[in-house]
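Methods — Computational structure assignment.
A single polypeptide chain was analysed. Its primary sequence is given first, followed by the predicted tertiary structure written as structure tokens.
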Amino acid sequence: MTYSSRYLRITDPLMEGIDVTNIQQRLSELGFYDGEITGVYDRQNAEAVRNFQQQNGLTADGIVGPNTWNAVGISSDLLQYFSTEYNITIDIEEKELTLRQGEQIIKVYPVAVGKPSTPTPTGNWRIIQKTLNPGGPFGARWMRLSVPWGGYGIHGTDQPESIGTAASHGCVRMLNEDVIELYDIVPLGTEVKITGITVTGRTLYLGVQPGEDVRNVQEILQELGYYGGPIDAVYDEEVRDAVLELQKDYGLIPDGVVGPNTYEILGKLGDILVNSQEP
């Protein structure tokens, strides 16, 4: 499955946040957006995204998913930082963030991480942007990570009850008092190592073993009107045919197999169906 942070798109009410600000700033740098940097994903923003997508051979739907994030890239201004005094390790299984100064542990914080369907990306990243008071679901502080295919970050939250669970769209949530403390300590360029086992979805095809992943695909396909069969977690001919029709409609190779590209379409459409706007 392709990783993705939340899909930026036109919603009601309009989607807001620091990730919207990031895409506006990047499109402005690239000459596709000449509006105000508002952090609100409006129709002018969506049109700029569509123009960028058209010129870069992407599906021109005005929705910012992993392929669009990858294509816009990260500003060189954000990549110039490098700091080795502090380092952060995030264990997505234990749901803990550990701050070290060199080898010495300074503090361990509880966090919320990505849901299985929208996992937090494992790997070695750096903090490339820091923003005070982004507000809303981003809480009191935002620290963007150098993950190229999405708007991932370490941030506060307006849902403190989610801390200690797998609840996010891939970002790492902290209690607001904790993220303020961390923000004040670590500089830009701090290394962030995210560890753990990330289950991102097996490839689904005719005859694959039944499972909850098949059930989820059936539910989305049924909501979209492609599938009218039972929600029984079985990938049979009827599910395959529904996947084929979806793939044809969205310009994918119609092979009836749910792989990375089909998962991305399903994830995007699933978010739209439930009006998910959470980071």
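Note: DSSP finds seven helices and ten strands in the chain.
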